[in-house]
Amino acid sequence: MKPVASTEPTSTTCAYCGVGCGINMQPQAEGFSASGIKTHPANIGRVCVKGSALGETLGLQGRLLHPEIDRQPVSWALALNTVADRLSAIIAEHGPQAVAFYGSGQLLTEDYYVANKLMKGFIGAGNMDTNSRLCMASAVVGYKRAFGADAVPCRYQDLEQADCVLLTGSNTAWAHPVVYQRLAQAKKDRPEMKIIVIDPRQTATCDIADMHLALRPGSDAALFCGALNAMAVGGGLDNDFLQHHTQGAEETLRAASEWTLARTAEFCGLAEEQLQAFYRLIGTSERLVTLYSMGINQSSSGVDKCSAIINLHLATGQIGREGCGPFSITGQPNAMGGREVGGLANQLACHMGFTQEDISRVGRFWGSENISKSAGLNAVDLFRAVEDGRIKAVWIMGTNPVVSLPDADRVRGGLARCPLVIVSEIMCDTDTTRAAHICLPALGWGEKDGTVTNSERCISRQRAFLPAPGEAKPDWWILSQVAQRLGFAEAFSYQHPAEIFREHAALSGFENNGSRAFDISGLAALSDVEWDDLQPIQWPVNVANPQGTVRMFHDKRFYHPDGKARLIAVTPRLPLSAPSEAYPLVMNTGRVRDQWHTMTRTGKSARLMQHLSEPFCQFHPEDAPQIRSGDLMRVSSSHGWLLLRAQPDTLQPRGSVFVPMHWNSNFSQQARVDALIEANVDPLSGQPESKHMPVSIRYWRTAWQAELFVRGENIEPPITSYWSRITQPGIAHFTLADTSRPADWLAWVSGQYAIDGYLCHTADLGDDGYSLLAWAGGELQLAFYARRRPPSVDRQAVVAAFSSPPGIASQRLALLGGRAGGDKAPTGAIICSCFSVGEIPIADAVRQGCHSVQHLGNKLNCGTNCGSCIPELKKIIAAQLNTLRAGEAK
Ligand SMILES: Nc1nc2c(c(=O)[nH]1)N[C@H]1C(S)=C(S)[C@@H](COP(=O)(O)OP(=O)(O)OC[C@H]3O[C@@H](n4cnc5c(=O)[nH]c(N)nc54)[C@H](O)[C@@H]3O)O[C@H]1N2
Ligand SMILES: Nc1nc2c(c(=O)[nH]1)N[C@H]1C(S)=C(S)[C@@H](COP(=O)(O)OP(=O)(O)OC[C@H]3O[C@@H](n4cnc5c(=O)[nH]c(N)nc54)[C@H](O)[C@@H]3O)O[C@H]1N2
Ligand code: SF4
Ligand SMILES: [Mo]
Predict the structure, then answer these.
(1) Tens of pLDDT, residues 31-40
(2) Which residues of the chain are in CATH 3.30.200.210 domains?
(3) Which of 120, 715, 814, 816 could form a disulfide with 821 if both were Cys (CB 3.0 to 4.6 A apart)?
(4) Which atom of ligand 1 is nearest to the CA of 596?
């Protein structure tokens, strides 16, 4: 492996999404800069804002650096012995079914393989599941039902080669930005290419769409059945393909025939004309790709939705060719790797299941007679079993279930009752480590070495370029050490991740003979050096396909025993929970552009937090006219409530609100959205319906709102009913609010922070508010601005004053008013995170004549790097032009 402290760039794979971009990390005088690798097939040199900010999230603040038992640091020896002893005792007393592992698509393949092998092969229970249950489980079952294998038939290039791309349940612009950039470029190069976005919300992705179908939430299966029926009626089927290469067409077409234009339009809440136009576009496209993501998978009928999509592709022969295919895009950097090793509880290993044959085969390969004979519990059931005591020990690695699982408070309650909770983490204080008895410090991205597989089945290396911090260790090492102490030394004697990779590759080819899609036996003989140098390669990689270049299903042979694909007749169903009088709106949840999941990593970057800095709820203004922008609002479901910033938005469909999934309880008082969500799951995949929860919303009356800046790290928020933390370098920054006003502001602030003895400048605005600047040694220590409404504070100016205090009285006075002294203009919310360009200068530039994204880019640089902000730039241009025109019309 590369010597640490080299001045050469390290080529690695991005830590974030399933696009799996190749990234060069170049050492700088201070830290590292990230840039896209031109030869990587996933991104061809591109990078998005999260990728380009990777260097900013490498700091060690908040890291878990030592093993801990009951939150006290202990030696590795003691931690590992304790884990092994306590697991052994529980297994001895209650049997192997009493223990469970819960892993993550953010583990590397090598880590994942060892975890799965230990649980399913040696402890002998099936209870190893993963957060991919919340993410890809429905897509996996959809593929397996259709093809007999969990094999994604597409490449990113197909998106560029298609005549028509359907993006359904995917906010590609924000969640898979480099794929979006590639699509946007392809559309520019070939304007005749059609892009259709299917999403109840009008998202940033709609910016490049020729058509947006804002369908009724949860109605996608009907839309695709309707499309299939329209193809059948209009003569658009590939009958030859259906006859020779598929089964199930007859029943499927019969079931679809009920989805007439009128019925589909009614069910989906779309106009017949729009549906007709949609069918026409599909029908006239030689090459169709359907890219689908969480709006499809996270559903109580997610598998059927996947099948409805795949049916359309099989019936029209849009598969196994260039520019075609049903393409489920993965979320996490190694979601696909987890599927390969068998990380889901219903898989055994390497695309094998729990058939007698597979159990025997894997047992012989691993040299174990104790292979689990049956599938284990999937994530939701697993945490229910933790709650009701069937599971007495759970080991959580690389995921934060107290934030991300539905019914999250119940998950937290279950963990609190569990006799043994082990958490392998990179961060010290997460909602999940708070529930742990034993915390094990893992190496993070940039420190660890291994492989990941992206959405297009491309295996790439993640390479270390940083020294191991503290006592942190690779996840595979931690697992192997525990396995050895459990008595499985021989099977877990790994010294190097390449050994694990070779074993995994060998198992994939073991007695395979073309029967299993996942076969990377061509990589089983890599030397350590070859593994280290491994260039991105798409599986399968075997004798028949040594370079990984052969297209999946090009020969129209599938993995069912008869070699034929299956069409599956489906009955479209709406989500399980319907709105009611008490909870009349539906809450949709998902991602924002610049944050990753539960924010344990992206939350460290001040730059990434400038885009959307508080947890929010978007709703159509007519659904709650009494709630205005700048208010706080309470969002309640039958399970709990949240306090969020109100974002009325006419682009939000009536009847539906949107709340981001990201904010954890380190970042906001009451914003863990999964605490509100019922754990309704798909009966076939066990995947929860995370995008559809009936809620009510109401105005939350505040007596005051404030912004607070306090010098220092690890500063606790003050005691208030609402707070939210905004990352700033060296400063704790909070937005605050409460329902009653303290009698004495100074006493209130000094009751929370030690500012006694500091020089205080204050401005008492009576009922309207209060400002306070506290100084010590000539340096600003604390700044506080309370107002009746959200105070208008130039955040950059206040943050800057902490490092360069204003020299003259007029500037201090300006600072007390929350403004920069002198002529420095405020920037407002940051729109372009790459160049930190704010909303105010952008709007000013539009008013001064920059009426296109290109113009704005020339003037301010915004949108010229990763391009993720282009949809928002367009929105600002449109809004400003509207205002200008309205002004002219008067
Ligand atoms: N910035 C950022 N990028 C990420 C991540 C992140 O945390 N942050 N996470 C990664 C991960 S793990 C994943 S899984 C992916 C997820 O990527 P996406 O699935 O693209 O992201 P989401 O925002 O969860 O949801 C996508 C869209 O589904 C829509 N939707 C909701 N209900 C329905 C419906 O009934 N039908 C249809 N057609 N659409 C619906 C939502 O309105 C939303 O716009 O993103 C990956 N990339
Ligand atoms: N309401 C709602 N809920 C959702 C979703 C949604 O759209 N809506 N999306 C779901 C989806 S698709 C997903 S994928 C999940 C994601 O949810 P989680 O997996 O819970 O989210 P992360 O924040 O990525 O958690 C990863 C954890 O692993 C830690 N970590 C990072 N690197 C390493 C490492 O190398 N080793 C170890 N041991 N730990 C590490 C991080 O600090 C972090 O705490 O959320 C799901 N939950
Ligand atoms: S698109 Fe995804 S993989 Fe690529 S740089 Fe952005 S976050 Fe990383
Ligand atoms: Mo995901």
Answers:
(1) 999 999 999 9
(2) 10-56
(3) 814
(4) 7
